[in-house]
Design goal:
Blueprint: E1 8-9, E2 24-25, E3 29-34, H1 40-55, E4 59-63, H2 68-76, H3 82-87, E5 91-95, H4 116-129, E6 133-137, H5 139-143, H6 149-163, E7 169-175, H7 188-192, E8 195-203, E9 209-218, E10 227-233, E11 236-244
């Protein structure tokens, strides 16, 4: 029997690494999916923050939805100082949010639209800080820009392959629209990823909700197949492997 073990990238999120053999496979693309308000962005940014603070692994956050000043403000509520990490060269934030007047990448709705500009700017920042972790939040916004499903699939595949070169680990967040059973805008996101984590925030009574997390797939890993309880605490997300969640 082979003694080979896949190199792992620890998330540092309490309880999560326990479910995924100690961390995500290094150099893989992981999809974090869930409906609005489930904690996708918090989990992804916590992955970056822990990488920089706990494991000295610089990271990049590409934000396509929320402007950086709001992200920094919200993460400070969990004691995560992203601005300090930027100053230390442990984090780069690429702002492609709608609030930015001039974006470094032109995103238009054209049949021939490609992501070469986005690849170039992320690669430039990755080389500058020697990034080991990359987060794109949220991929769903890019997906809406494509009129062709085939082009969408091809461009997303090229993007993820390019960004994970050299062993970088890529997290993509994707919002599941209400009243949809898939994992993204066109379900392309799940096709791209070697791992899929789904977050839930389900109503369990007239006045309460229950948060939970499911490792839907993780290639090369013996991961938990159960849905586990999850909470958003003062320190960020915490997973409870011993508690079974409800959806």
């Amino acid at each position: 029997m082979s003694e080979y073990t896949i190199p792992r990238v620890k998330t540092g999120i309490p309880g999560l690494d326990e479910l995924i053999e100690g961390g995500f496979p290094k150099g893989d693309t992981i999809l974090i999916a869930g409906k609005a308000g489930t904690g996708k962005s918090i989990l992804a940014i916590q992955f970056l923050y822990n990488g920089a603070v706990k494991y000295n692994e610089p990271g990049i956050l590409v934000t396509l939805e929320e402007p950086p000043h709001l992200i920094k403000r919200n993460m400070m509520c969990f004691g995560m100082d992203l601005e300090a990490l930027e100053k230390e060269g442990l984090l780069a934030i690429i702002d492609l949010s709608p609030s930015k007047e001039v974006t470094p990448v032109s995103i238009g709705e054209y049949p021939s639209f490609d992501l070469s500009g986005l690849k170039a700017i992320i690669a430039s920042h990755a080389d500058r800080i020697n990034a080991q972790r990359i987060v794109i939040d949220t991929l769903s916004i890019l997906a809406y820009k494509f009129r062709s499903r085939d082009i969408l699939r091809e461009e997303f595949f090229k993007l993820t392959a390019h960004l994970t070169q050299g062993g970088r680990t890529l997290l993509l967040t994707s919002e599941i629209p209400e009243h949809q059973n898939g994992l993204g805008v066109f379900d392309i996101e799940a096709f791209l990823a070697s791992g899929v984590i789904v977050l839930y925030n389900e109503k369990i009574g007239p006045t309460s909700r229950s948060r939970s997390i499911e490792v839907l797939k993780l290639r090369g890993s013996k991961h938990s197949s159960r849905i586990h309880s999850m909470r958003i605490t003062d320190d960020g997300i915490r997973v409870f492997p011993g508690e079974i969640g409800s959806v």
